[in-house]
Amino acid sequence: MRKLWKNFIILFLILAAMLITSNVIVKRLTERHKSERMVVTNRITDEIYNKIDLQTAKSDLYPYGIVPSGLANEVFYNRKAEWESLYGEDACPDDVIIHIFDGGNFEVSEPVDTSENNISENDAESLSGEKGYVDGGVIVADLTVPDSVRDDLGKKADDIKPIGIVEYRFADNSYKFISVILNVTIVFAAVLMFIYTLWISIKVLAPFNKLSEYPERLSKGEMTEKLPENRNKYFGRYIWGMNMLSDKLEYDRQTIGKLSVERQKFVTTMVHGIKTPTASIKLLAEAIATGLYDPEGKVNAKDAELAGKIKKNADEIEILVESVMEEGTKAVFEYDPTIEPFYRNEVIDFIEQEYTNKLKLNRIPFTIESEGNPLIKSDKDGIFRILRQLMDNAIKYGDGEGITLSLSKNEEGHFISVINSGSPLPDSETVYVFNSLWRGSNSGGIPGSGIGLYESRLIARKLGGDIRMKTGENRTELVLFLPE
Q1: Span 337-353, mean pLDDT?
Q2: What sign for the dihedral angle of Cα 353, 354, 355, 360?
Q3: Measured distance CA(103)–CA(114) in Å, rounded
Q4: pLDDT tens readout for residues 203-239
């Protein structure tokens, strides 16, 4: 999951870089486009200036002159093809509108809305915005007296006011449109990518991370419940395969348990069959060595030497038989602990995750008693394996009225108890409960091989602890002790 989000961040940074780069490029193209348009509009404005009548500009009717009718046609519309050939179609305006300030009988060149004829200077500036390039594809230029007329009138530049403005309208603002499209597209892609990454994390990776723990538990001998089918069916074949593997391993485990029992029976029968004649051979050898079977009751040195060799071989056979007997009564078990620190709540989380649904299905009340969350330094997997066995036994051999998991700590170490209600084993049998392949009198009709508690005690002792059984009235408690 971390790798997925790392890839998302990388892609997000790439998109951010693309967004910044595209905006920079569009900005430069727009500025270049604006610059080209400003050049063209300045040239057209100069032409308009030059067309103003120099003599009538001095009239008393208006001190700055009269704009002749049709000036826009003369300067721009009739020569539009010429302007476009010189500066390009994009750099040339589509419309040129001349606005005259109120204060004189001035005619306005076509085309222009008559409602905007003879507007005030303030209204014109409000309409067009600041002089220069105005947003929306409009360029506004002052229509003022040419320098030659101003000098002839003897007025300073600050004293000369414009008689109007020229508004240049352009049909498009393509670079801005492209910028908006690029920005919206990249932002939409980033949002879509984030939503998809989040969806993959929640719907696919998170469930799969949980499922990926299952093979590890199977490899450690932790036989978990069957994996439930996912609603979205993304892991159908995987879950099906894992459940088949679980069934196969459970079947193999039961088969090994049965073979171990048969092996023990065979070894026990064979050992007892060998021990009896071996003891007889030793007695006969001793009798021969003492001359018991000699007619005169004398000891024959040669016979005594042979009897000694026979007795020695018989002793070796007895040693081998005892070794076979000891190994034959043990279950096949190997365990190598890995000691690491972890918190007690991890044990509680494990039990809740593994047994909450199972106990609900069996309608068995379940409570957990624990105070605090101390650090435990031991083999977590080994403890889980022990608790799994204790919980399974509590379910199998209890009466279904309730199971309690109790966790506590004192100066000696940690104690984890599994308590179930139901008829306990007789005191005469509790001493054998941790023996290999032994099953109590309450196991009739209940599947099992008598290996679980034996292996659990071996694990506990390898961890430096132990397991004890306590019985009471309608109560059985198995206590796992782990040293501090």
Answers
A1: 91
A2: positive
A3: 16
A4: 777 777 777 777 777 776 665 566 766 666 667 777 7
Banded model confidence at residue 129, pLDDT cuts 50, 70, 90: very low
Helices (H), 290-340: 301-328
CA atoms within 13 A on the CB side of 427: 2
Going 63 to 64 to 65 to 68, the CA torsion angle's sign is negative
- Are 405 and 479 in contact, with CB atoms under 8 Å apart? no
Q: Which two structure tokens, joined as six digits, stand for 196?
A: 């998809």
What is the C-alpha to C-alpha distance for residues 175 and 33, in angstroms, rounded to an integer? 9
Cβ-proximal residues to 109 (8 Å cutoff; 6+ apart), any chain = 67, 69, 70, 71, 72, 73, 96, 98
Predicted pLDDT at 464? 92
Q: Please give the torsion angle defined by the CA atoms of residues 313, 319, 322 and 324, in that order, rounded to the nearest 10 degrees.
A: -80
Name the residue type at position 243. N
- In the numeric block, the tokens 């940690």 are attached to 414
C-alpha closest to that of 30 among 220, 156, 182:
182
Return d(Cα 47, Cα 39) in angstroms, integer: 13
pLDDT for 165 equals 78
- Closest to 394 (Cα-Cα) out of 279, 307, 477: 477
